[in-house]
């Protein structure tokens, strides 16, 4: 089994796609107006309109109501990304800091309130832990 993607359900696909295009620096693929994928080498971030949830027969998902998942992206330089993203990120939860487990990280919320973490391993142990990962 291979991990394929994370999908965010939203009531405003266009707004969230535009935001993540800026964050990730890639253009979204839009096979339908209610669905988009932002593909980077290590993962795919999918964004679907709340109208799409019923297609899976999975009950309901409430857009902009996530309180348990953090979407994480490994970056080369957390401080540089923080400076680059400051102009359009509305809510920074944590400015760049080094975490006890050896990652430098910055945490913010996307326009729907989902938590997004940018991190880079910086200690010897953290760098070793991530060696060999994509």
Automatic annotation (TrEMBL):
Domain VOC: 2-121
Organism: Paenibacillus sacheonensis
Keyword Metal-binding in annotation: yes
Protein's name in the database: VOC family protein
Highest taxon of source: Bacteria
GO molecular function: metal ion binding; methylmalonyl-CoA epimerase activity
PROSITE patterns: VOC
Listed GO biological process terms: L-methylmalonyl-CoA metabolic process
Keywords (A to Z) from UniProt: Metal-binding
InterPro entries: Glyas_Bleomycin-R_OHBP_Dase, Glyas_Fos-R_dOase_dom, MMCE/EMCE_epimerase, VOC_core
